[in-house]
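Translate structure to sequence.
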């Protein structure tokens, strides 16, 4: 038996043996991907290949899971038949909210999950995604997104867990642990992206220059990736499209090798974001042709090109043969590609599971119940003057606004719905498909143009349990009327006068506002859809203002990829509910929250600016520049009344919670291990959830430190009168930093710890004094506190 077929050997040993048997063209093909535009009927029949392939990219797919699996089986057979040594392909897809093929599980999108502050729920979600992907033969997910979202103009906010590195780190580790599983041969390789600093760009523009210094890059934006590597055994990483310090990230040895591998300790596979390598020629102009681009990226540490072999093809073979590239770089990346395949057990079982298993996995009721519960937990109430919950079942309710009777507005880009809309409506523009066999019209799928009505019909057919906000409310209250009021985007399409007249007749008005997260010009945010304004699109602000003037008894329900930025809403509405993008069960969860059946327990994963223009504020900002300006007689900008409408971590409930008996114990002295406990009591008469948050502050530092840092959090459920004790355990090195000598240290002096309800709450503070400065082994430091 060949060594590479010996299961008793390690994945690395097997990969090394197989590598030694491959020709140069075979090695190069293991660094390449082919995209399969699965919405095209019969695409697997015409697929052909030579010398195998590293990966297949399949976005979208067959209507039924069993048919989808049969397609993957056929494709895998063709890949292995084309390979002299029958090397299988890794099949990947997006999976932020669930696998992006029809009838797969759809959870709320990441920004919604961030608002839940519930990593255990996210871990369970990852496990459910794993089960569905493995069942049909997909073994790598281009998820999760670990970017820290600190500019609300950036269009991909919804793909992140929020703007705090500790929150993102804990959510990331939970998702990855569930997705990959304890046994990788039965798991799905997670791909953390986008490494690094993709969300902090010049002007908030997608793919633009990253605006970070070295310290913030390392201490803040690298933190979630490092946590995923060191705590969750992350298997794959995807590069950022952006540039840093004059180099495209995909061709930066400083980022992909020196930082990612040597500093953060990553030893897995780096795959390219789609068409990244081409950008060296077409956008950055640092490569004269695709061969030059391929050489630069491969040497920097980019292992696999996606979604098609645009540069990692004959270009690399010729470069080695002409002496332009040392073959050791091809071998290095090929070894990593093969090793992942052995870790996933693909040589033993490259295929989907049996139909009976697929049937069981895709009809498991717990999957749907998990999605519904996640939607409920995401609901975030940020203002309430007592109007909610709506107890009068006979109240005359007007639902007005462009998102109130739309299912699509509550879905995001990287879901099965968003992906199908993207692939069919924008096939010619999709990365890697220009001018190829991907050209098609929608007739073969929908029988007509891909427009809003067609997509709404698609959702209703695929997700019959989904409800719009209006329909979900109508099932609870008999006197509910709906009017659009205005278009979600076009400022000239308004029907505000009719909305105003209807508002005058209503007891309560629910103003439903937000955008459309997607791909292309019909969207208001999404990948490549950035905005100069972070406020409401189109005429929605005008609608909100005029309806509110007609009936001051109004509630704002906001569903979008980012939090509501509207001083008018926060000044004048009776209540504001953030519904985020919860997909299938968004309408139901919102209606349940408005009626009081669901007590909101979500918390803001972003600081919400007071008004349009304060795009990049976050609570950690050094030296509290905003408060300094306030003390000089200005509220940061002389044309703004305030800075923050609501702080990070903020959220209201229909009950009240009281904290008491806070105490701190020192469990170990060398690198201090601290234990902080607090009793939490539900002092109201309604069952509810509280998110206990622990913040830390190095009071005086030799380097400028954040105002405070989130160290940990715990979401708990309490019955009326019930008391629970929440305990946080952590090493003090969770607050360590890099000094001027480039050493990681915990600096001597005072540390403050806040047991808080949000990032501005300083009512409960415990103090600790570190007698001497300690050097820290940063590879073993804590990334977030353990909470029980």
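Result:
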């Amino acid at each position: 038996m060949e060594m590479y077929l010996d299961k008793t050997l390690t994945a690395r040993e097997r990969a090394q043996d197989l590598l030694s048997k491959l020709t140069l063209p075979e090695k190069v093909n293991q660094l390449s991907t082919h995209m399969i535009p699965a919405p095209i009927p019969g695409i697997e029949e015409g697929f052909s290949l030579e010398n195998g392939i590293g990966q297949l990219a399949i976005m979208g797919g067959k209507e039924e899971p069993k048919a989808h699996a049969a397609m993957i089986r056929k494709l895998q057979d063709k890949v292995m038949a084309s390979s002299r040594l029958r090397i299988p392909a890794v099949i990947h897809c997006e999976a932020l909210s669930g696998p992006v093929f029809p009838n797969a599980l759809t959870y709320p999108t990441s920004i919604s999950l961030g608002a839940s502050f519930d990593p255990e729920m996210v871990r369970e979600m990852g496990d459910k995604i794993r089960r569905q992907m493995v069942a049909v033969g997909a073994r790598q997910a281009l998820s999760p997104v670990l970017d820290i979202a600190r500019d609300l103009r950036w269009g991909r906010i919804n793909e992140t867990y929020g703007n705090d590195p500790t929150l993102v780190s804990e959510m990331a580790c939970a998702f990855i642990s569930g997705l990959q599983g304890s046994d990788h041969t039965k798991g799905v390789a997670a791909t953390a992206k986008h490494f690094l600093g993709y969300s902090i760009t010049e002007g908030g523009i997608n793919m633009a220059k990253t605006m970070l210094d070295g310290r913030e890059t390392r201490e803040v934006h690298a933190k979630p990736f490092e946590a995923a590597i060191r705590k969750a055994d992350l298997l794959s990483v995807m590069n950022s499209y952006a540039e840093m310090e004059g180099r495209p990230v995909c061709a930066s040895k400083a980022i992909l090798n020196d930082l990612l591998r040597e500093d953060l300790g990553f030893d897995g596979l780096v795959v390219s974001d789609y068409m990244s390598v081409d950008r060296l020629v077409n956008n950055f102009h640092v490569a004269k042709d695709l061969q030059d681009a391929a050489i630069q990226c491969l040497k920097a540490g980019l292992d696999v090109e996606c979604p098609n072999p645009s540069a990692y093809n004959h270009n690399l073979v010729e470069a080695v043969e002409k002496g332009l590239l040392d073959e050791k770089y091809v071998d290095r990346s090929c070894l990593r590609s093969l090793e992942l395949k052995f870790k996933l057990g693909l040589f033993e079982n490259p295929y989907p599971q049996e139909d009976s298993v697929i049937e069981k996995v895709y009809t498991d009721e717990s999957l749907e119940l998990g999605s519904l519960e996640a939607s409920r937990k995401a609901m975030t109430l940020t203002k309430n003057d007592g109007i909610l919950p709506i107890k009068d079942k006979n109240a005359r309710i007007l639902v007005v606004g462009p998102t109130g009777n739309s299912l699509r507005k509550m879905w995001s880009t990287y879901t099965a719905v968003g992906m199908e809309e993207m692939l069919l409506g924008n096939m010619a523009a999709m990365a890697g498909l220009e001018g190829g066999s991907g050209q098609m019209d929608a007739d073969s799928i929908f029988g007509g143009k891909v427009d809003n009505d067609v997509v709404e019909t698609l959702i209703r057919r695929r997700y019959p349990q989904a409800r719009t906000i209006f329909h979900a409310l109508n099932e609870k209250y008999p006197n509910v009327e709906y009017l659009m009021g205005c278009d979600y985007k076009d400022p000239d399409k308004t029907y505000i006068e009719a909305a105003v007249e209807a508002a005058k007749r209503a007891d309560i008005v629910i103003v439903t506002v937000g955008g459309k997260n997607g791909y292309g010009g019909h969207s208001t945010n999404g990948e490549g859809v950035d905005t100069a304004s972070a406020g409401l699109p189109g005429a929605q602000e005008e609608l909100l203002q005029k309806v509110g003037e007609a009936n001051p008894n109004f509630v704002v329900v906001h569903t979008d990829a980012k939090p509501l930025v509207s001083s008018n809403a926060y000044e004048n509405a009776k209540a504001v509910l953030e519904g985020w993008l919860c997909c299938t069960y968004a309408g139901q969860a919102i209606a349940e929250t408005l009626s009081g059946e669901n007590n909101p327990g979500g918390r803001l994963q972003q600081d919400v600016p007071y008004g349009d223009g304060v795009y990049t504020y976050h609570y950690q900002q050094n030296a509290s520049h905003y408060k300094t300006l306030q003390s000089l007689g200005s509220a940061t900008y002389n044309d703004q009344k305030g800075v923050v409408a609501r702080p990070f971590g903020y959220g209201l409930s229909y009950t009240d919670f009281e904290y008491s008996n806070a105490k701190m114990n020192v469990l170990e002295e060398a690198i201090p291990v601290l234990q902080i406990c607090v009793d939490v009591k539900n002092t109201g008469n309604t069952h509810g959830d509280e998110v206990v948050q622990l913040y830390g502050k190095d009071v005086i530092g030799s380097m400028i430190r954040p105002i405070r840092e989130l160290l940990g959090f715990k979401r708990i459920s309490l019955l009326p009168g019930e008391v629970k004790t929440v305990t946080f355990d952590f090493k003090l090195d969770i607050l360590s930093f890099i000094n001027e000598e480039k050493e990681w240290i915990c600096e001597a002096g005072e540390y403050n710890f806040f047991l808080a309800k949000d990032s501005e709450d300083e009512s409960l503070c415990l103090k600790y004094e570190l007698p001497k400065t300690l050097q820290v082994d940063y590879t073993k430091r804590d990334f977030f506190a353990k909470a029980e």
